[in-house]
Design brief:
Alpha-Beta Plaits, 2 domains, four-stranded antiparallel β-sheet, Rossmann fold, 9 strands
Length: 257
């Protein structure tokens, strides 16, 4: 758990450790060992079950900016039971803190639709990732090593998303490529749509759609809102692809050749 926390702290440098709250049912010996590390000494810890609303309120979940829900492997039970708990927690958290960005890990992809219905902002399909990596490795493609290099928080080369400058919103993908063409050690590979808090994005889209006086266009726009998906990646789009509001640019950053 210590290495895992270290990676999370590294990727969230904008937070002080005193702003992080950890909720789990781990033994006190394990948690004391982790908190004895100076790097984690400021982390707040609450012993309890994260599907318990009282525990969540004790952690001031209402004021959370980001929430990371991990599949609770400390609980005895089937994969279905573990994922059911994750879904329950996500629903409860989104009810209490609609503006929080929630990322949740599930072990079985069939529970994905329940998290989507709960407006979960980011869904981590652990078993799916493993299956895809193994399938690619079986072909001798080297993809597993490439992916590991790109997502390793300690690597000199990594995949990242950044918000484009305001002047690029509504422009073409070719304009994005041109804008970043003089940047060193950056390779643009795509666009990530509907980023940020997905509930707020949908509410804004519905509000904009309702301003349409034409009923047929209103119905069409509401259908498009229904089909919206959070953090939708568009890899290597056409040059004429339009950069929408709340989009981010997907890029590979790191050392030059």
């Amino acid at each position: 758990m210590g290495h895992f926390l270290a990676d999370i702290v590294s990727k969230n440098s904008e937070f002080n450790t005193s702003e992080i709250v950890l909720i789990n049912t781990a033994g006190s010996e394990e948690m004391n060992l982790i908190r004895s590390n100076k790097r984690f000494s400021g982390i707040n810890y609450i012993h309890g079950d994260y599907i318990d609303e009282n525990i969540l309120r004790k952690a001031n979940i209402k004021y959370a900016k980001k929430v990371l829900l991990l599949a609770d492997r400390l609980v005895q039970g089937s994969i279905q039971e573990v994922d059911s708990r994750t879904v329950m927690a996500a629903i409860t958290i989104k009810t209490i803190a609609r503006s929080a960005y929630v990322a949740a890990e599930i072990l079985d992809s069939k529970y994905e639709r329940y998290l989507v219905s709960a407006n979960c902002d980011e869904i981590i399909l652990t078993s799916e990732y493993n299956r895809h990596l193994i399938a690619n490795a079986s072909a001798g493609s080297g993809i597993a090593h490439i992916i590991n290099e790109l997502i390793d928080v300690n690597s000199n080369v990594h995949i990242a998303t950044i918000s484009p400058p305001h002047e690029l919103i509504g422009k073409r993908y070719s304009d994005v490529i041109k804008y970043y063409s003089n940047e060193n050690n950056i390779v643009i590979i795509g666009v990530l749509e509907n980023t940020g808090n997905f509930y707020l994005r949908k509410m804004e889209a519905i509000s904009e759609a309702q301003k349409t006086p034409d009923i047929s266009r209103l119905v069409e726009k509401l259908k498009s809102v229904k089909n919206m998906s959070a953090n939708r990646p568009v890899i290597n789009p056409s040059p004429d692809f339009i950069i929408g509001k709340y989009s981010k640019i997907i890029m590979i950053q790191g050392r030059g050749a």
